Sequence to fold (288 residues):
Amino acid sequence: MAEVNLTNVCKSYGADVALDDVTMTIPDGSFVVLLGPTGAGKTTTLRMVSGLDKPESGRISIGGRDMDGLTPAQRDVAMVFQQYSLYPHLTVRQNLEFPLKSPILKTPADEMKRQVSEVAEVLQISHKLDNKATDLSGGEMQRVSIGRALVRNPSVFLMDEPLSSLDAKLRSDLRIELKSIQANSGATLLYVTHDQIEAMTMATHIGVLDQGKLVQFGAPRDIYENPVSVYAASRLGQPRINVLPADVFGGAPDGAVTIGLRPEQIMQGEGEDSLVQRIERLGDQTRL
Fold:
């Protein structure tokens, strides 16, 4: 596995700035989640690392090796997309074997069989190896897509919202599996999502992006408890942080304009009556 470094990386598409002087270190063996809304620069960052797009300026290195001029195939990375990247006319086994047959890897037949068998067992799809991809459910197809990346054992895994098209239960199940696979393998994994639950539950580090800028980078708990801005604070936490004028509170720090309060920081006490506008009963919690 390998450390990934981005140094002063910039990228524009016409007049639109996709990445603006992004510098970030993805530690070896870490699970880094890039978090932000559509257009924040998450997928562009993945494409820069993979070699599918080239930065206009800046430097990208993987394992200490400069990636300038190297094709995606030469970078030893594997990418999983939101949509299932499978060959529908091939079986699950053949789809998993496909990357191992590349001219670069030239995997021997017995080694190929072993690697496919191991990955299929980890992803719990051994019983589907002889099925066509078109015979699989959505969750099974995404497992095979992930398997096509795992079977190569690359230096870095890149995943672009791989769970977003699945239903809630499958997303929850695969979150657990992906985190377990990454932890057990020691893989370096860069993962894109706009889902804060995925970010908080899976990541060792989170990179918060906004309009092409890296706003904050650190451990999930650090960003949650010590956000550098209202924007960063609003990316984590469900329900979202309450941002209120400072003059509503007595004893606010001098110069404070806004106060951020997370739901768990609010305590019931004496004061003026208020009107509850909406109640949401979610079983384990009630939101007012």
